[in-house]
Design goal:
The protein is of the alpha/beta class. Helices cover about 40% and strands about 25% of the residues.
Length: about 160
């Protein structure tokens, strides 16, 4: 089953631009580095060649990641209703007496003003579908059981 990821139009445009850049300029620059390093001779002990090949691997991995993300993205206005947590919402919660706000969605939509939690994270999975006033429990990565209370769930603008 493919997981759909909600993205703002701005985030989708930014990721599409990054993908185009990597597929064109990024690939050609890495190929030039590989060719230049190859021209130096012996490839077994050629640090520049191995570094360029590693860079190529990382670039191709990022291209695959972006393609998969964009192919499985829901772009635009988040679905759901105010007051019920769904992807693309700014969520206010209380955890262990402390209030916090975060955006439920992909890290690719992070804008710097809010922390972003994916729907697959322990916190994100716990609050997904919850309504204002609900309390949910989840297990933190350290194994501790945590209770979270939903204070607000509004569409992210």
């Amino acid at each position: 089953m493919t997981v759909k990821t909600w993205l703002t139009q701005e985030a989708a445009d930014r990721l599409t631009h990054e993908l185009r850049e990597l597929e064109t300029t990024g690939r050609s620059e890495v190929v030039k580095k590989i060719e230049a390093a190859r021209a130096e001779g012996d490839l077994k002990e050629n640090g520049g060649y191995h570094a360029a090949r590693e860079e190529q691997g990382k670039l191709e991995a990022r291209i695959r990641q972006l393609k998969a993300l964009l192919e499985n993205a829901e772009i635009g206005t988040p679905k759901g209703e105010a007051g019920q947590v769904s992807p693309g919402m700014k969520v206010a919660v209380e955890i262990m007496g402390k209030k916090m706000e975060f955006l439920l969605g992909s890290r690719e939509i992070a804008s710097g003003e809010l922390d972003v939690y994916s729907e697959q994270s322990p916190l994100g999975a716990a609050v997904l579908g919850a309504k204002v006033g609900d309390e949910r429990r989840y297990t933190a990565p350290n194994g501790k059981a945590i209770t979270v209370k939903i204070l607000a769930a509004d569409f992210f603008a």
